[in-house]
Design goal:
Dihydrodipicolinate Reductase, domain 2, Rossmann fold, 436 residues, 15 helices, Alpha-Beta Plaits, 6-stranded parallel sheet, 3 domains, alpha/beta
Length: 436
């Protein structure tokens, strides 16, 4: 049987990994797919580099549109990234009747609704396993493996850069800026790391998982996003003393009044497996009503781990090429006519627990004032840590862990606490999830 012909748009880090793995494991992949999968043409502006990587094993062009227009190409793999030209090329490939595989989480999270509708109308597939958590097959698990379940929540460490930085801060007591420089030196962080450290990358991925888990449209614009730039090494140390670790989590939950979709630093009990995911590794914890808790762990980025997911999509598309479009696995797990428009909750309406750190006067009555204010806003205390004041100082750190309460209650309480003359500076607030 004639091999499936693939057009590869972009042969950077992931593209070169796709070419390498597909070439190296060609026989094994063919045994699984039922026919060969061959890269027919590579489009890249840097044709000299592309030729160096590919040699004579594929055609090299600089114009991506020539790949889309080539009638010999069955599947287009988009590895350019970003929202701009990548969106145009994906929609053009769909219009030309090509199936599409992409690793572009930003594109899917922001424009996925439009892209999937176009693909459904044309009867083609858009596969995007590599868009979330690199080589971890979390999309397939959510879309197929857990299809018997009512998914209740997902919590994931889905950005390796920030997890590496937080691991360095915890292990070595480094401040954020120092840990970031180390991440950049080792190649874990870009020269401009904003997308990672501000939580945007993780929010793209959380948006995709939320849509698949709950059968709702992509709602990236509604996500609450908070990065790690304001985290202090002292809070990581205090959290450790209280039995917690701080991770940047992407969290999505379905509640009776709407969907939570949020990314922020989070305290997790150190006994949880996900709390012990260190370095640049990723992990996603999913809770389903039938299966309970499942955990998916592995490399979330890198050339060959991401290529593993891209090629898995190529195999899936190859297997389903002759299937009736109505009998294929839906893009977002649920049948298109069964999707629901559940609202995303504003962060003020989210219920969770909190870690608070306050710099307070070292004198009698301070704690009583603070607990009175918290109680007045329906916030109850779960645990308390008070450090001894250094000799000669009249202030000390007070750390409070609360039970669950609405965010708006906590914000009002903190605002009132900061008016006290016995409280100095800003109150540090970090959300806490037990993930039980």
């Amino acid at each position: 049987m004639k091999p499936i012909q693939v057009g590869l748009l972009g042969i950077g880090t992931v593209g070169s990994g796709v070419f390498s793995v597909l070439t190296r494991n060609q026989e094994e992949i063919q045994r699984r797919a039922g026919r060969g999968i061959r890269i027919h043409t590579v489009a890249d502006l840097n044709t000299a580099r592309a030729k160096e990587l590919v040699q004579d094993n594929a055609q090299i062009v600089s114009d991506a549109r020539s790949v889309i227009q080539n009638p010999e190409i069955d599947i287009v793999v988009e590895l350019i990234g970003g929202y701009g030209i990548a969106k145009d090329l994906v929609l053009e490939a769909i219009a030309a009747g090509k199936h599409v595989v992409t690793a572009n989480k930003a594109l899917i999270a922001v424009h996925g609704n439009e892209i999937f509708k176009a693909a459904q109308n044309k009867g083609v597939m858009v596969a995007f396993e590599a868009a979330v958590a690199g080589g971890i097959p979390i999309i397939k698990a959510l879309r197929e493996g857990l299809s018997a379940n009512r998914i209740e929540w997902i919590a994931g460490i889905i950005n390796g850069t920030t997890n590496f930085i937080l691991s360095e801060m915890r292990d070595k007591g480094l401040d954020f800026a120092v840990a970031l420089k180390e991440a950049q030196r080792l190649g874990y962080a870009e020269a401009d790391p904003s997308f990672d450290i501000e939580g945007i990358d993780a929010a793209h991925k959380a948006t995709i998982m939320s849509a698949i888990a709950f059968g709702v449209p992509m709602q990236f614009s509604q996500a609450y996003v908070e990065g790690i730039t304001n985290l202090s090494a002292i809070d990581i140390r205090y959290a450790e003393q209280l039995g917690y670790r701080i991770k940047l989590l992407g969290i999505t939950k379905k509640t009776p009044i709407g969907i939570e979709l949020r990314v922020h630093p989070t305290l997790i009990p150190s006994k949880r497996l996900i709390a012990n995911v260190e370095g640049a590794m990723n992990a996603v914890q999913v809770f389903g009503d039938a299966v309970g808790t499942t955990l998916y762990y592995g490399k979330g980025a890198g050339s060959e781990p991401t290529a593993s997911a891209v090629i898995a999509d190529l195999v899936d598309v190859t297997r389903l090429l002759t299937a009736d479009p109505e009998n294929r696995v839906p893009h977002l797990a649920f049948q298109p006519n069964a999707m629901q428009n559940w609202p995303v909750l504003a962060i003020a309406e989210v219920t969770t627990s909190y870690y608070l750190r306050l710099s307070v006067a070292d004198q009698a009555g301070v704690l009583a004032e603070i607990t009175k204010i918290l109680a007045g806003h329906s916030v109850s205390i779960d645990a308390l840590l008070q450090k001894e004041a250094n000799e000669g100082e009249n202030k000390t750190d007070l750390v409070i862990l609360t039970h669950e309460t609405k965010e708006k209650n906590m914000v009002l309480a903190i605002s009132e606490i900061q008016e006290l003359k016995t409280v100095f500076g800003e109150v540090t607030k970090i959300r806490l999830e037990n993930l039980s």
